[in-house]
């Protein structure tokens, strides 16, 4: 591990003993990541990158290494699956990629296309992995902060706990697909995946998600936010168009929203009450506080976040500038209050412009310069542990979005 200047430990955190961390050089950690052990239990941290770990951007590799360094000694196996022929981490080593009940035709025959085909390939891997093997699925752009092992042990990993799913939520009627956790064969994710496959099978088999949010199977739920517009190549995309774009892009989230709000008395397992299941069995925290705090504190201004995180801390005797104060509040806030931080990419770049993640990608190594606030954040993510878990969302009693069978059109 790199030698670093002594960073201040924010209040409410304590240092993790070194024997609980894997602090070996990157090359040794990478060897373990590229040569995974067979699945032994449900303590799996799953990620996906089409070309494999070695082809990932440096800042994303550092995220993955932190998941491993932080949690492997608590029994977690970290695996970055891929679609590389002959790779021991190929998805086909863990799932039957020829099974139509697991993957849609476009995935099976390699025709999945579109501007965000890589993202949707990744989406299609998540629920099958959790249903087959259990564990946690995280995006490669998710930076770990909170104590995943403790949260798991007190919820999904505890047979006496009522909680069967871990995630983040925006409004209590949805989930974020960049952090999903459950044991094997989870009933919520089973139905979510069944609906997602049905959406992909429409019209003889879709090759993109374009227009998928307008499926009659999703007519009971609202589309994504309608208050954003943007201009691109001289054309203005209005709020309704952006809403459809976002809903198609995050079609996995749309499927989950429907299932979470579904009341299906004809369900083959004796009925399905989605709102009740969520209230009783889903442990979720507010996605803004838990995973988007840098964006909240910079008003979703990616260049500003990049500038602040690139600043160096004051040297001894130097007064703190306004920018350094803002950057310090970001780092302290994330380490004290957040469970993770999601680096945004994909469609969001068209809508909001450059993000911290895209600027780290464009400026290799800028997230890892000793003495900067970005490096302080990364150091704290690995070496310090929060004294408490995040607050669980208080799920209200709500009316179902839909009454009737999951795959029957209204």
Q: Overview of this structure, please?
A:
With about 400 residues, the protein is an alpha/beta fold. The chain contains 16 helices and 15 strands. The chain has helices at about 25-35, 60-70, 105-110, 115-135, 150-155, 185-200, 240-250, 250-260, 275-280, 285-290, 295, 300-310, 320-335, 350, 355-360, 375-385, and strands spanning about 15, 45-50, 75-80, 135-140, 140-145, 165-170, 180, 230, 235, 260-265, 270-275, 280-285, 340, 385, 400-405. A hairpin with a 7-residue loop joins strand 10 and strand 11. Helix 13 runs parallel beside helix 16. The model has no long low-confidence stretch (mean pLDDT about 95). Pfam families: Caps_synth (PF05704).
Average pLDDT, all residues = 96
Counting DSSP H or I runs of 4 or more residues, the number of helices is 16
Shape: globular
Mind summarizing the main beta sheet? Answer: 6 strands, mixed
Instruction: Assess the beta-strand content as a share of residues.
Output: 5-15%
Gyration radius, in Å: 21 Å
Number of strands: 15
Structural class: alpha/beta
Helix content: 25-40%
Query: Biggest sheet: strands side by side, in what order?
Result: 3-2-4-7-6-12
Distance between the termini: 57 Å
Uncertain runs: none
GO molecular function: glycosyltransferase activity
InterPro entries: AfumC-like_glycosyl_Trfase, Nucleotide-diphossugar_trans
Protein name: Capsule polysaccharide biosynthesis protein
């Amino acid at each position: 591990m790199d030698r670093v200047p002594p960073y201040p430990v924010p209040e409410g955190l304590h240092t993790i003993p070194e024997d609980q961390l894997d602090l070996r050089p990157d090359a040794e950690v990478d060897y373990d990541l590229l040569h995974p052990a067979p699945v032994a239990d449900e303590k799996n941290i799953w990620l996906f990158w089409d070309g494999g770990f070695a082809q990932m951007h440096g800042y994303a590799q550092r995220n993955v290494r932190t998941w491993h360094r932080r949690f492997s000694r608590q029994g977690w196996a970290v695996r970055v699956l891929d679609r590389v022929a002959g790779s021991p981490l190929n998805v086909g080593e863990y799932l039957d990629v020829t099974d139509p009940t697991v993957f849609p035709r476009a995935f099976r025959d390699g025709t999945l296309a579109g501007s965000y085909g890589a993202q949707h390939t990744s989406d299609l891997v998540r629920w099958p992995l959790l249903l087959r093997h259990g564990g946690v699925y995280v995006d490669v752009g998710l930076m770990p902060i909170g104590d995943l092992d403790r949260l798991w042990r007190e919820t999904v990993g505890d047979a006496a706990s009522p909680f069967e799913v871990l995630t983040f939520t925006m409004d209590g009627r949805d989930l974020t697909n960049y952090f999903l956790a459950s044991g094997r064969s989870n009933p919520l994710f089973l139905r979510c995946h069944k609906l997602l496959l049905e959406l992909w099978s429409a019209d003889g088999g879709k090759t993109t998600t374009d227009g998928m949010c307008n499926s009659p199977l999703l007519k009971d739920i609202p589309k994504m936010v309608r208050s954003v517009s943007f201009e691109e190549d001289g054309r203005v995309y209005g709020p309704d168009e952006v809403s459809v774009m976002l809903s198609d892009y995050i079609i996995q989230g749309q499927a989950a929203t429907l299932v979470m709000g579904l009341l299906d008395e004809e369900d083959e397992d004796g009925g399905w009450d989605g709102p009740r299941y969520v209230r009783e069995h889903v442990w979720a925290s507010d996605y803004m506080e838990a995973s988007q705090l840098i964006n909240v504190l910079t008003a979703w201004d990616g260049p500003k976040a990049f500038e602040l995180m690139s600043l160096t801390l004051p040297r001894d005797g130097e007064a703190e500038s306004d920018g350094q104060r803002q950057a310090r509040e970001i780092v302290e806030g994330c380490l004290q209050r957040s469970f993770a931080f999601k680096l945004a990419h994909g469609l969001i770049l068209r809508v909001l412009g450059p993000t911290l993640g895209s600027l780290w990608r464009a400026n290799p190594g800028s997230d890892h310069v000793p003495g900067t606030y970005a490096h302080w954040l990364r150091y704290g993510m690995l070496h310090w542990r929060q004294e408490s878990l995040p607050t669980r969302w208080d799920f209200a009693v709500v009316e179902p979005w839909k009454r009737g069978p999951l795959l029957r059109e209204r």
